[in-house]
Design a protein that fits this description.
Largest sheet: 5 strands, antiparallel
Strand order of the largest sheet: 6-5-4-1-7
CATH topology of the largest domain: Serine Threonine Protein Phosphatase 5, Tetratricopeptide repeat
Shape: globular
Order of helices and strands: HHHHHHHEEEEEEE
Distance between the termini: 23 Å
Radius of gyration: 21 Å
Number of helices: 7
Number of domains: 3
Number of strands: 7
CATH class of the largest domain: Mainly Alpha
Strand content: 5-15%
CATH superfamily of the largest domain: Tetratricopeptide repeat domain
């Protein structure tokens, strides 16, 4: 398993970060995870911190929290090979053989660009399109059609992919503890899921969550056993076994 520890962070107090790194290196994985989570919840979320948090959870035997942390890290740094490698290895250890969600499709660049990169790219290109429109109004005879297409089409595509990714942030989730999935309302148990299973989160009601598997099966489970893959949410903590 690849191991990388963040050695410096501009926003975090160095003593706290150093103590988290030291705890991890000394084998105190649970303590390290709590400290990394504290840094994230204090407003210093980054791909590196989520990556370190995943390493600590994995070392502590918390497969669900590790996969959730690395999924969040991958959203912030989708081209990071270490994050991808750790996710691949952790998924092999998951008890449930659930296919991970596919990313991209027609919007193929989503697999290599972070949400922030897509958003800034859309803002830049659509801003340039606006400038070209202003220039055309001042000089109607200028041949600006091709430049407008070259910045306008990618700008709209990036804006669309940003909107899609934002809408999906709250629908992807990871199971953190063993849980039974039933038909709802205390009905028939349909199947069981174990830490690390990656599911789609459809809705929540009365402390329960409706989830869907890639094969189309749906059911209800305890909401507290689910971690949503959205890096803006609080960092995953050690759940009860």
């Amino acid at each position: 398993m690849t191991l990388f520890l963040l050695l410096g962070h501009a926003l975090a107090g160095p003593a706290t970060l150093e103590s988290a790194n030291a705890a991890h290196l000394e084998g105190r994985a649970g303590e390290a995870a709590e400290q990394y989570a504290d840094l994230i919840d204090a407003g210093h979320a980054s791909a590196d911190l989520y990556y370190n948090l995943g390493n600590s959870h994995f070392q502590d035997g918390r497969l669900g929290e590790a996969i959730l942390s690395w999924r969040r890290a991958a959203l912030l740094a989708p081209r990071d090979g270490d994050i991808a490698a750790n996710l691949d290895q952790a998924r092999l250890k998951a008890r449930d053989r659930v296919d991970p969600p596919s990313v991209g499709g027609a919007l193929f660049w989503r697999s290599t660009l972070s949400l922030a990169e897509q958003g800034w790219g859309a803002t830049l290109m659509l801003g340039l399109l606006g400038l070209l429109a202003c220039l055309w109004r001042l000089r109607p005879g200028l041949p600006l059609g091709i430049p407008a297409l070259l910045v306008g089409v990618p700008g709209m595509a990036l804006a669309l992919s940003s909107a899609v990714e934002l809408s999906e942030l709250g629908s992807q989730a990871v199971v953190l503890t063993p849980v039974q999935v039933d038909s709802g309302g205390g009905g028939v148990v349909l199947f069981e899921l174990h830490p690390g299973a990656e599911v789609l989160f459809r809705e929540a009601a009365a402390g329960r969550a409706q989830i869907e598997l890639p094969d189309g099966r749906r059911g209800w489970m305890e909401l507290g056993a689910l971690g949503v893959v959205d890096p803006r949410l609080p960092a995953p903590r050690a759940s009860a076994r």
